[in-house]
Design a protein that fits this description.
With about 150 residues, this protein is an alpha+beta fold. Helix content is about 25%, strand content about 30%. α1 crosses α2.
């Protein structure tokens, strides 16, 4: 996977969640840089790998609908066959639900989060975040592991 493929796939995952929502939110790109260093270094891969993170506020819907927007994102991702990474019924049943999921087998991670705007009125703001798996920067190639079988 390269940078453009990671961005395209992350956008696809965002749209899987948003395209069928009602009321229809507007995607407002926000958050940190889209491309950054890989933070999942537990697989002993090269340290110069990158990953894509897309972070969107879902605007244009009433604050009272933020909870439902996050629940709709979860349902849309489940319908696509994506799986829970973490979250439980308590996380989803409160006034400000959040969900953490991932795709299989390509291992993109996504979150749907309801942020608090006005606790007294039960208003929030829905956000969606998708993070790609790590990939090598342009021009880098995956090193051949010395123990790996070589093809003639």
């Amino acid at each position: 996977m390269n940078e453009q493929q990671a961005i395209d796939r992350a956008e696809e995952i965002i749209h899987q969640a948003v395209d069928g929502m009602s009321p229809k939110p507007t995607l407002e790109h926000t958050g940190p840089e889209t491309i950054g260093p890989c933070i999942a270094r537990d697989d002993h891969g090269p340290d110069d790998r990158l990953q894509v993170t897309l972070f969107y506020k879902l605007t244009g819907v009433p604050g009272a609908e933020a909870k439902n927007v996050v629940l709709q994102a979860r349902d849309a991702w489940l319908k696509q066959g994506h799986t829970y990474n973490s979250s439980d019924e308590e996380d989803m049943s409160g006034p400000y639900p959040w969900v953490s999921m991932r795709t299989e087998p390509d291992d993109f991670w996504m979150e749907g989060i309801t942020g608090v705007l006005d606790r007294a009125k039960g208003e929030g703001l829905a956000t969606l975040k998708v993070t790609s798996p790590c990939f090598l920067p342009p021009g880098k190639v995956t090193p051949v592991h010395p123990a790996a079988p070589q093809t003639p």
